[in-house]
Amino acid sequence: MSDTAGTVDHVLITDVLLRDGFQIEPVVIPTADKIRLAYGLLDAGLTSLEIGSFVHPGKVPQMADTDQLVSELRPGESAALHTLVFNERGARRALAAGARNVRLIVSASDGHSQANAGVPSQAALARLRPAAALLTEAQVRIEACIATAFVCPFDGETSPDTVVGLARQLSALGIRVLHLADTIGAASPWHIRRTVSAVRTALPDLPLGLHLHNTYGMASANAWEALQLGVRRFDASLGGIGGCPFAPGAAGNIATDDLVNLCHHAGISTGIDAEKLVALREELHALLGRKLDSALSAVPATPVALRTAVTTG
């Protein structure tokens, strides 16, 4: 499998605002607002959005409208809408709604898997096998995400060997991309290098992405480390909002606006219009009625370097 999404000078950013961003908000965001923000992100140049999760609405009420979002959003041929699936029932719901891009998710640590899925990691993985079979038969593009790939709030540091073992099993299910998640934002660049290198060595042809959180202010440093390792796929959330409701202490995602700023300073293109992100961020601020978490949301103007990739050479 070759990584066709990115070269050395381009990064693919998947904005996860509608899923990871909103899932931890205390007030359910109206579907119409989600749709408006989704189209705003697409208009800003995002070509990949994570819009929801097929979970029981009683467990995560903010995701109750995922079926509707999949059915109503029309991103065009050049953009992909991703949804999360944890089991066969979720896969059937995804297919019924018309999903074409699905992410399977499993935790590397048993502690987080128990909190998030109600069963240990290997049992959660077993649930994904029939789901993957259904999705493959329907020719749905499958990616996967390993949660707590670096640190778990219950079990501590995650061994790279554990992540590699799960990566091998997920690869056997036919996934196109594997995302490694710093679910509680406790990883350091050292963790990133250690685990990304281990997975790369074991599965050199499997494209990798990172899902970073900024609980301890390390997300940008971790993204930079990953860029040096050749990672060219990242999840991010506009304004830096989000977190896992089943991981104590987890704070917001790396911010889409901050990550674009980092990439553009380094001369790495994203295809994203940063000026449009500023306007969207203001809309999000008004919708939530609170301060956003991105560094750029705290400054009055957009740095020149954020507007376009810096010319290097």
TrEMBL record:
InterPro entries: AIPM/Hcit_synth_CS (IPR002034), Aldolase_TIM (IPR013785), HMGL (IPR043594), PYR_CT (IPR000891). The keyword Lyase applies. It holds the Pfam family HMGL-like. GO terms for molecular function: lyase activity. Residues 11-278 form the Pyruvate carboxyltransferase domain. Keywords: Lyase, Metal-binding, Transferase. SUPFAM superfamilies: Aldolase. Gene3D superfamilies: Aldolase class I. Belongs to the alpha-IPM synthase/homocitrate synthase family. PANTHER family: HYDROXYMETHYLGLUTARYL-COA LYASE. NCBIfam families: PRK05692.1. This is Hydroxymethylglutaryl-CoA lyase. It comes from Streptomyces ochraceiscleroticus. The lineage of its organism: Bacteria, Bacillati, Actinomycetota, Actinomycetes, Kitasatosporales.
